[in-house]
Amino acid sequence: MSQATTEEMAAVGTEAFSLGIGDRCDSCGAQAYIRATIGDSELLFCAHHGHRHQEKLAKIATSWHDESSRLSAES
């Protein structure tokens, strides 16, 4: 299994799926904007927790889907 760099993780954010209102942060329960895949498992995070853990997850995540830019577009 290869490890994703921060740049590779950011590039994955253009995948064809999106996170919806029913997707909730595994840390706090807020709406999820970030999905990290690690092997066959996935973690969902709000923008706050996703960015907080991104550096550590970059070492083990196989993909990273970040829709946190929607937050500024929704304001």
Can you summarize this structure?
This protein has 75 residues and is α+β, with helices and mostly antiparallel strands.
- Could you give the count of β-strands? 3
Dominant shape: globular
Largest sheet geometry: 3 strands, antiparallel
- End-to-end span in angstroms? 39 Å
Number of helices: 3
Summarize model confidence as the mean pLDDT. Answer: 84
Poorly predicted regions are 11-15
Layout of strands and helices, then pairs:
Blueprint: H1 6-11, E1 34-38, E2 41-45, H2 47-57, E3 63-66, H3 70-74
Antiparallel strand pairs: 1-2, 1-3
Describe this structure in words.
It is a single chain. The protein is α+β, with helices and mostly antiparallel strands and 75 residues long. The chain has one domain. 29% of the residues lie in helices and 19% in strands. The longest helix is centred in the C-terminal third of the chain and has 11 residues.
